[in-house]
Design brief:
The structure is a single chain. By secondary structure, this protein is of the alpha+beta class. The chain has 2 domains: about 30-225, Probable tRNA modification gtpase trme, domain 1 (Gyrase A, domain 2); about 230-355, Beta Barrel (Elongation Factor Tu (Ef-tu), domain 3). It has helices spanning about 35-45, 65-70, 120-125, 155, 195-205, 215-225, 260-270, 335-340; strands at about 45-50, 55-60, 85-90, 95-105, 110-115, 135-140, 145-150, 170-175, 175-185, 185-195, 210, 275-280, 300-305, 315-320, 325-335, 340-345, 355. The strands form 3 sheets. A 6-stranded mixed β-sheet has the order 8-9-10-7-1-11, with helices on both faces. Strand 4 and strand 5 form a beta hairpin. It is globular, with a radius of gyration of 20 Å. The two termini are about 25 Å apart.
């Protein structure tokens, strides 16, 4: 597979990926395991969590929409102020360098993405601005991102005049943007992105109504929503369909060209999608998040017992699970998913138990 995109500052020629390095799964930081009452706060009541795992890029200028429209997998040209959309940014080989939530805030188009890929992705996009009237800026320090899940609408109504009902509906107010994102574990979810001072001034009042929990709980909720997050460990590993981005509405097959578009379209229309993303639990570690021989981290490979010589998939995202062990989104060969007997790290590694996704996958040819 291709080398993932790194957050290094090395220059790259247009049309080629910047030089990269990746943190091996065996050296990945241990997963944060929230306390049981933090999961319970989301599942039984309502909770909020400041989300430090995200970065934000602001794109401004007369050509901001048309520039992004020509770079990303989704339609940005027709993105209105009341909507948010998923989008991907691909290499010329059609592999995802990053995944975004995109929305408009006034004259600005905002891109929310994994913090560890944000510097390199912003730099790469900036290289292709050329004569377009568009400017990219890192807004991560100026803005705060807060996730809310569970019974939170009443609390949100004290901050925003209106609370969005539909998924990916955006409401703007003095405190920033409030976007409803897909439910997870049967619970409502919202993202609040606003000026850091405005958000922080309102958090004490919010804490009187809702529990404050670890951002790692949001990672687990994202996994149960079936939404992949492209981080440095898996950057440039997957064609969008391999992580269900087409099913999630992150690819518009009617829009114009973007980097890798021919490969993405060919995979869609020639029936060559033989790999998909699935939801799995690895219970073998109990309250641990792996061991030296079988670390659980994004980028870790999967193997099938009947074919131990080559990997059949890869972990996309992983988070500590409330019942112990870990839950993960995994990219996997459809044949291996159907056959079962999929293990982490080696054919005799910990066994994966597959769980239903919250959406249906199309029948592949």
């Amino acid at each position: 597979m291709n080398t993932p995109l790194a957050s290094s500052s090395g220059a790259a020629a247009p049309g080629t990926a910047p030089s990269a390095s990746v943190t091996p799964a065996s050296h990945a930081a241990p997963l944060v395991r929230p306390a049981p009452d933090e999961f319970d706060a989301v599942l039984s009541r309502g909770a909020f969590m400041p989300l430090t795992q995200f970065g934000i890029v602001d794109v401004t200028g007369d050509d901001a929409a048309s520039f992004l429209h020509a770079q990303l997998t989704n339609d940005v040209q027709h993105l209105d102020a009341s909507s948010a959309r998923l989008a991907g940014y691909c290499s010329p080989k059609g592999r995802l360098l990053a995944s975004f939530l995109t929305w408009r805030h006034g004259d600005t188009i905002r891109l929310l993405l994994a913090k560890d890929v944000q510097p390199a992705v912003q730099k790469r996009l900036s290289m292709f601005v050329l004569r377009s009237k568009a400017k990219l800026a890192d807004a991560s320090a100026a803005l705060a991102v807060v996730g809310l899940a569970g019974d939170v609408r009443r609390a949100l109504s004290t901050v925003f005049d209106a609370v969005p009902d539909g998924v990916h509906v955006n409401v703007d107010g003095p405190a920033g943007s409030l976007i409803r994102v897909p439910d997870a574990a049967g619970r409502l979810r919202y993202l609040w992105i606003g000026p850091k001072a405005e958000v922080e001034a309102r958090l004490p009042g919010l804490e009187q109504k809702l529990s404050r929990v670890s951002p790692a709980v949001w990672d687990w909720l994202d996994i149960h929503a079936g939404e992949p997050r492209i981080t440095q460990a898996v950057s440039e590993q997957f064609v969008p369909q391999m992580v269900n981005f087409d099913v999630l509405g992150g690819v518009n097959f009617r829009k114009g060209c973007y980097p890798g578009q021919e490969i993405v379209a060919r995979s869609q229309y020639r029936g060559t999608i033989k790999r998909r993303m699935a939801l799995a639990n690895i219970a073998a570690f109990g309250d641990k998040s792996g061991d030296a021989a079988h670390p659980v981290a994004a980028g870790a490979e999967l193997f099938q017992a009947d074919d131990p010589g080559q990997p059949c998939g890869m972990i996309v995202n992983v988070a500590a699970a409330p019942q112990g062990g870990v839950d993960a989104l995994v990219e996997i060969k459809l044949a291996a998913l159907e056959a079962g007997g999929v293990h982490l790290g080696a054919a005799d590694g910990p066994l994966l138990s597959f769980l239903p996704l919250p959406y249906a996958l199309p029948t592949e040819n």
